[in-house]
Amino acid sequence: MTTLEAAERRAKRTVKETPAEKRDLRLSRALLWPALVVSLVLTQIPFLVTIYYSLQSWNLLRPADQEFVWFANYVTVFTGGDFIPSLISTVVITGTSVVLSVLFGLGIALLLDRKFHGQALARTLLITPFLVMPAAAALIWKWSILDANVGVLNWALGLVGIPEISWNTDLPLVTIIMVLTWQYTPFMMLIILAGLQSQSGEVLEAASVDGAGPIRTFVSMTLPHLRQYIEIAALLGSIMLLQVFDPIAIMTRGTGGTKTLSYLLYERAFVGLEVGEAAAYGVVTVIVTIIVASVALRTLFQIFATDGDK
Amino acid sequence: MTAQTETRPSVPATETRAPAARKRRRSMAHRGRGAVLTLVTWIIVVLFFFPVAWMVFTAFKTEAAAATNPPVFITALSFDNFVGVFNRDIGPYLVNSIIASVASTLIVLLLAVPAAYALSIRPIKKVQDALFFFISTRFMPVAAGIIPIYLVLKSIGALDNITALSLLYVGINLPIAVWMMRSFFSEVPIEIVEASQIDGANFRVELTRVVLPIVAPGIAAVALICFIFAWNEYFLANLLTASAARTTPPFLGSFVDGRGQFLAILSAASTVAVLPVVAAGWIAQKQLVRGLAMGAIK
Predict the structure, then answer these.
(1) How far apart are CA B268 and CA B254, in angstroms?
(2) Domain contains A65
(3) Which of A223, A303, B123, B271 could form an SS bridge with B127, CB 3.0 to 4.6 Å?
(4) Which residues of B touch A293 (CB under 8 A)?
(5) How do the pLDDT tens digits run along chain B, 298 residues long?
């Protein structure tokens, strides 16, 4: 039985409202309310206040000068010259890291979906980057691995004849993408692996009996089956990476094309103390995220729907 | 979990010798390719795990041995750096991390279990609406509300306060917890719930005796994921705490020392900081994988 059928059956039980059913309904509401209220207070209401702030001219250094300025902050955001580069940085960092980690995740998931010695150990070690605290990962990558003088990566590249590279100063964007790809590949791998393992063995066997080679089977059967898993992994990854802050704050401080929207907002609000302008950046960031999230949600509900068809 | 049973059709007895030999040759080639794939897999595993292994290895070196080019692989190892980390008073920061992540996880479970129960076992009308609300909140960036939250905490004197930080972690983790937990509750066979209701079980008995035992692994998965997010959280901790309530992630940066060598002690501090979550994730790997797959897909 699929989730959707179950949900429908459950929903039908509430159609006729006997007193007992009414009591049920009251109970359900009572169970749901605390979580809804906490969510509203901690996330939705602050967002509404952010929208209100974004219409104010308000610098914390001159708190007395607060006034309502309509959309002046948005004009500043879009004409100030910081927004477009920051949007580009955000898109480049998010896009590249997502594409790379999905590709690596897919490859590794395919490799792990076989029987071999130490398979469980291999998976355990592979999920570790996802568990490591991002702040610790950023520090270790920056100082211990990518450092120009004592970094182990330059030494390893030197073994194959590649000259020393000043990663942190010359290629900040590359370092951020490297760390993010390293951290998110296990996440993509786990979702894609779940997809691989939900594939019916019988169908694959039938294909093999019918004489389809492994490549043919992969392209015409496994890949279409995996499509929805890859899509959802990519979209969830995009949403998480759009907000990424830790490696940028720790490794590059927004230099060299790594000043993403969330870092720019942080700088404006908590270094520049420009509350109104920062709030406008916050609202714009939410709009960008909503655009991505709505695509994600549509895909999610498509999966709900195809689940019901089976 | 990854183990897939390979069932090959058994060779019919009437088959002639020639195809059998061909089949044997093919299966040897198959095995050869398998060995290559296994080797490739392990090379990738080593590459991906290397930064973590390097961090742990460096943590046991002396400062002088940690910062050399070329790196040294054979050197005296000791626990001195870990002693050094605790002498630099990482203790209170770890305690703050434990308080914030355990407290927020418990509160999230207290709120999310009833909500998920209501959403899947006793659905109210407009289930989709409530669900959509939680999912949309999950996608809301922290940037959306951080400015008013900061200003409110500042005005009521709750900056650098571990309770305030824990409550914010509840706000971040609650939506994803409800969402994942609902997937787990949806797997409870409705017949069992109905049977218990016909038997006259009241709500509390139904929840504690019938439903909770079935979804217990799911609750463990959700708890683990909430704990991981809270333990590793940096942005809010860095912004909203200074000293008394500071957690481990923003504290780690203080081991970077512009004047001298610090790689070994930084690695030791990072090892201590990542250990609880990495250990928990390794031990509860099955729950973690299930939780992520459920949260992401269903």
Answers:
(1) 13
(2) no
(3) B123
(4) 136, 139
(5) 444 444 444 444 444 455 555 556 556 666 777 888 889 999 999 999 999 999 999 989 888 787 887 888 888 888 888 888 898 888 899 999 999 999 999 999 999 988 888 887 766 666 666 776 776 676 677 777 888 888 888 888 888 889 999 999 998 888 888 888 888 888 788 777 777 777 776 777 777 777 888 888 888 888 988 999 999 999 999 989 988 889 999 998 888 887 778 888 899 999 999 999 999 888 888 877 777 776 665 5
Residue B289's closest chain A neighbor by CA?
Answer: A190
Residue B32 class from Cβ within 10 Å (0-12 exposed, 13-18 middle, 19+ buried)? Answer: exposed
Residues of B in contact with A143 (CB under 8 A): 256, 262-263, 266
Structure tokens at A232: 């959802």
- Flag whether A292 is in a domain: yes
Count of domains in chain A? 1
d(CA A182, CA B53): 14
Asked whether residue A185 is domain-assigned, the answer is yes
Give the integer Cα–Cα distance in Å for B274 and A139: 12
Torsion angle, CA of A104/A106/A111/A114, rounded to 10 degrees? 160
Query: What one-character-per-residue DSSP string does B171-207 give?
Result: HHHHHHHHHHHHHHHHTS-HHHHHHHHHTT--HHHII
CATH code: domain of residue A220: 1.10.3720.10
Of A14, A134, A232, the CB nearest to B123: A14
If one counts every other C-beta atom within 10 angstroms of the C-beta of residue A10, the result is: 19
Tokens of A285: 């960031």
Q: Please tell me the distance in Å from A64's CA to the nearest CA on chain B.
A: 15
Closest CA relative to residue B275, chosen from B21, B40, B59: B59
Write out the residue range of the structural domain in which residue A163 sits.
81-309
Alpha-carbon span A16 to B211, nearest angstrom: 24
